[in-house]
Amino acid sequence: MSYTVSAVCGSRPLRDFLGLPRAVYGEDPHWVPPVISTVRRTLDVNKNPYFRKASLKLFLCRKDKTPVARLAVVINRLEEKIFGLRSALFGYFEAMNDAEAVLHLFEEAERYCRLQGAQVLEGPFSPNHYSELGLQLDSFGAPPSFFQPYNPAYYPSLLEKAGYRLSRRFQTMKNDHIREYIRARYGLPPEPAGRHGYSVRSLSLKDLGEELERIREVNNDAFASNWHFLPLSREEYTFSSKYLSLVTRPDLIKIVEHRGRPVAVLHCVFDINPLLKKLKGRVGPVKYLKFLRARRKIKKLILFTVSIKKAYQHTQVYHLLLAAFCRMIPEFETLETTWLSPENIPALRAAESLGMKPDKHFAIYEKRIVP
Q1: Radius of gyration of the chain measured on its C-alpha atoms
Q2: How far apart are CA 110 and CA 163, in angstroms?
Q3: What's the pLDDT score for residue 284?
Q4: DSSP string of 150-188?
Q5: 269 — phi, psi (to 5°)?
Q6: What's the CA gap between 348 and 357, in Å, rounded?
Q7: What confidence tens digit (pLDDT) does each residue in 196-217 have?
Q8: Residue 73 φ/ψ, nearest 5 degrees
Q9: Number of helical H runs and strand E runs in the chain
């Protein structure tokens, strides 16, 4: 029995890297196979503009020539410039329940990171704006919603045995009766009508490129002080938004403007995971049409982001977004958030105001890799 870890180079090793999750999850009824073409696109350093300022290295561990663990390592030069620490990020971690294989995998990844001058290796992260964050810690008997990480229960133990410690926790929140809750607490508010130059509208498809630029502008301002947040370039946001029309509708994205300038965005998406599961990682014309038909019946909504420019966070903007949200919710039954930090008190209180309660928990792990 022998273990070998090598950098992924060439089409055959990449196929093994992309194919490992199917061997790990097997017949797990809750696992949602990723669309392989989308993963390839995200990891293509020639196509993904994120890699214009970052490097990518893929590692694959084999046990007697059989792939048993994988890892992607990203080093972004902006991390040190903005946060003052030269850190490397790992993602796309998948492994069989084999602690020795994972130890070999991370030892090779850490060796590479030290050669690049990195001081810390932490994750899981993914090099894409529309991607999961963290490792699942609980609720393993429930299917993941869209944007939620999903992994076997033994993953945290594998990381701990490799010397990694839990450094940050996140949670999602959920209300399984959002329609009834909104009706009872808020009723049906009138169409949001701002004063003093404020207005609320849905996303416009007439000039989608400029609309995405407005959203990017708001997000970069609103999240500038968030942990590990790096400002997105126009090219990055456009790249990440390629499949936006498949996961949402224009009326599920609300933009607040003040005297014609964007100041806040409410961005909701469908929970398309049950539909993605049926694709089994592959997309074709027939599957695509079935996907679009089935999407009309989705009753679970994901509150992806609520972003308000810092200068407008204590104005009437929040109430305008709340009124807009209450008007969109009657056709849905369940509402979930993406990950929320326990330190983000305003976000937690906003979720609680919608009757949402803590649901699943996730974690980031880290290890200092220099003496």
Answers
A1: 21
A2: 11
A3: 86
A4: ---TTHHHHHHHTT-EEEEEEEEEEETTHHHHHHHHT--
A5: -135, 160
A6: 9
A7: 899 999 999 999 999 999 999 9
A8: -120, 130
A9: 13, 13
